[in-house]
Amino acid sequence: MEGYTPEEINAIYPDLSLEKIYATITYYLQNRQKIDAYLLRLQNWRETRYHEALKHPSPQREKMRKIKQQRQDSIKV
């Protein structure tokens, strides 16, 4: 929630106490490089898995794709 104040975050997520919000921000500021590196690794991992899933779809995904195509073909007729 970049750009939001702790109070604004608390207004959006009232279950989070201001104490926890400030603690989280403090932790991030003290460990910025480690956290940013972790988030980058996570993003890269997700992208890799997404592209693998597109290249090698599961049998269920293929079945759903065929059903969708059949429905679209029947609408055109």
* Secondary structure category: mainly alpha
- Stretches where pLDDT falls below 50 for ≥5 residues? none
Write down the overall geometry: elongated
Assess the beta-strand content as a share of residues: under 5%
Number of domains: 1
Order of helices and strands: HHHH
Total number of β-strand segments? 0
Number of helices: 4
> How does the major sheet shape up?
none
Radius of gyration: 22 Å
Helix content: over 70%
- Return the average pLDDT rounded to an integer: 95
In whole angstroms, the N-to-C terminal distance is: 49 Å
Q: Could you explain the architecture of this structure?
A:
Residues 53-77 are annotated as: Disordered. The protein has one domain (4-74). The protein has helices at 6-12, 18-30, 32-55, 59-76. The protein is mostly helical.
